[in-house]
Each structure stands twice: as C-alpha cells, then as structure tokens.
Amino acid sequence: xxxGDVTLAxxxxxxxxxxxxxxxxxxxxxxxxxxxVSRQMAALExxxxxxxxxxxxxGVRPTGxxxxxxxxxxxxxxxxxxxxxxxxxxxxxxxxxxxxxFPAAGAVLVADALAALRRESPRPRVTTxxxxxxxxxxxxxxxxxxxxVLTSRPPHRSPDTDAPPLHxxxxxxxxxxxxxxxxxxxxxxxxxxVADIAAQPWIAGPGSADEPLLGVWPGLPxxxxxxxxxxxxxxxxxxxxxxxxxxxxxxxxxxxxxRGVRFVDVTGVAEEVRRIDLVSLPGRLxxxxxxxxxxxxxxxxxxxx
Length: 305
What we know:
- It is a single chain.
- This protein has 305 residues and is an alpha/beta fold.
- Helices cover 39% and strands 23% of the residues.
- It has ten helices and 13 strands.
- The chain is globular.
- The relative contact order is 0.15.
- The mean pLDDT is 89.
C-alpha cells in the first residue's frame, strides 16, 4: 500500500482524533463507532507505513509521522472545503477567524475585543469556543482554530512540546485572589492566611484527565474540601455570596462582581501571577486574524492600566 490508498475519510478521522485526544471522543464527534475509527486509523497507518499515534493512559498523541501527515491533511481538507463552497456559489470564508479561549477570558477580554471589531470595516467573521488548554492546543495543531487565548503560570513554558513550536505572545499579567463572602471574617480583615483558607469549603471547576480543578488556591497543604463544582465563574461567585464556600479568580477579568462578594489577598504564601497569552501556529496570520489580534492587544493594554 502507499499514499494513493489514503482516503478523505481517513484524513478526517486523523484530524478528529488529533483534536479530540481519544478515539472515543473522535467517534462521538464524527457519529462513528469506536471500532470504525480504529479501522480507519489502522488503514491509514498501513497506507503510510508508520505509526501515527502514541497511546498513553487517558488518550493518544500524534507521533512525529502523525504530526507531519496532520499538517498536510489539514491543508488538503481546507482546500476541499473551499472548493466545495466555490462550486456551491457560497462566498469564500477567507474573512473567518476561529478563536479559542480559556473560560475566564470570555467575559471581558474576548467579549470586549469582539465589540471593538464591530466598528471595523471590513469586519472579520469571528467564531469562538471555550475550552481547556490541552483541548485548545490540540485544536490549533489540528487546524480547527486560528488563535487561542491561554493562561500560564511561571515559568511560562510553551503549552506543548510539539514541532514546529507554537508562537506565544504575552498579552497581560493578572494576579490571583480569593473571592470570599462580604460578611466573612476574611472580608473584615482584608486578607486571608493560607493556613486558614486551606480548611475552607471550596467552589471549583470540575476537573478532568487533562484539566485540574480550577478555583482552588495552588499548592494548598492537605487535600482541599470541594463543596461545590461549577464551570461558570458567575455561578461560582454567587455561591460565594451565599456563603457556600470560597474560590479563586483574577478580578481584572471579571466584568461584574455580584453583591456580597469581596476579593482578598492571600498571605503566608508567594503571590500567584497568571499570564494571558495569545497562541497560534508559526507563520504569518491572515489579515482578518490580524485585526482580531490587534483588538485583543488593545483590550489587554486597557486592563493592564
């Protein structure tokens, strides 16, 4: 067998597995059975004469050969999509930009940048999706996102080690604080000691294999007591206001703080700084993506002031 035996279905499965990180998730997304996905991958590996994915607990990652084929698969599938649109008389979507972002970036940074773009002419068509850092990085590598707004903590390593290296542009540094009820002793003192908060009930984002619990102060002694889980920051803060627990947040990224919530600094431990980065594949961005980048830079500069 050889490259002539590579099918479009095989390339689509390759891209979906690379993006989703598991055969099961790829099968669910494509509407296939898991065995059908496995057969497609086996046929593709036989056609190219190389293993395309490494298996590890919890998922798969593309091998060097898998990453090389993926780059060509993305280009081929995008070209076919463009041809299909042209033949159907649909206006080419060259003005489209696909942006991914971590949850806390949506309410201020992303929303305000999109509002600024509404005044641009021509205005790019932006679609967005929220996700964890591993999921968004896989989407960048798979060609289903053009840009991603991600967060990192010191020493601010690249979000992955694949080649070619991702382009990472720092946008903003924010400080982590703890949200507490306004009638709590922490709010009264204006600070919270790390030993005190370790024993408090926490409100956290649900964790997964590739996403640790979000909303708990990093490196707490002992095992934190998770009283409530919620993905949405506004829900978390309303639970804080109700006295149900405490959570972490970067106040600069929140547009509105519910009544009954105060943010306090944590003492007895080093300050927790988070950097917000704009991440893309290496190479020059198309003009529509450049317009979105400029809008994100301007909003980040406003937040830094």
